[in-house]
Amino acid sequence: MSTHYFIGIRIPQQIAQQLGQARDSWELSTHKRLTPPADMHITLVFIGEDRFGELQEIAERLGKIDQASFRLQIAGVKTFGNPETPRIVYAALADNTKLMNLQQAVEQQLETLELSTDPKPFVPHITLASRWKGGSLPASWGLEEMAFWVDSFSLFEIHPQETPRYREIQTYSLKGDA
Q: How many CB atoms lie within 10 A of CB 176?
């Protein structure tokens, strides 16, 4: 199996721990995979495998992104898929122009490469649980308000059989807050 890659934002450890504790309090037995706090992130662009040997070029192009750091607000819990049997349960993020600008800047840096990036529209989220297996969902998703600063993003390598699954191979700092 070939190695896969993505570009994303690592969630600060304290926030990831709080998200994991909230998720665990729901006693969510409906999904096969509960994301460990160490793996919580926001995917900006999923790359997949590096079929054309462009990883070094990707790393160099990402270094050209010049954007200020910004604050993100977690805005509750949502799901992907059928609401009764969701594929994914995630922490939603409040609308944030700077996050959208960063994601678009990443896409623009990659658009002339031969990558097969995910064509679905960008929906910023932090996956908490995936792979529906059945059962009853909680009546409510109690999740306290949380916010955090984003001062970097990274190129990640995926290691499905390891914990953590996602290894940062290059990290890019954002400029001071704006």
A: 8
Across the strands, what pairs with 70?
Answer: 150
Query: Parallel, antiparallel, or unpaired for β 88-93 and 68-80?
Result: antiparallel
The closest alpha carbon to 107, from 117, 93, 94, belongs to 117
Can you give the pLDDT at residue 1?
Answer: 66
Model confidence pLDDT, tens digit, residues 125-162: 999 999 999 999 998 898 888 999 999 999 999 999 99
> CA–CA distance from 134 to each of 84, 85, 86, 129, 166 (Å)?
10, 7, 10, 13, 27
How many other CB atoms sit within 10 Å of the CB of residue 133? 10
What is the number of alpha carbons within 13 Å of residue 32 lying toward its C-beta? Answer: 4
Checking if the pLDDT of 24 tops 80, the result is: yes
How many Cβ atoms are within 10 Å of 129's Cβ, its own excluded? Answer: 22
Tell me the C-alpha distance between 73 and 61, whole Å. 28
Share of the chain above pLDDT 90, in %: 81
Q: Say what the pLDDT of residue 115 is.
A: 79
Q: Could you tell me which residues come within 8 angstroms of residue 137 by beta carbon, excluding any fewer than 6 positions away?
A: 28, 30, 84, 86
Structure tokens at 111: 């658009």
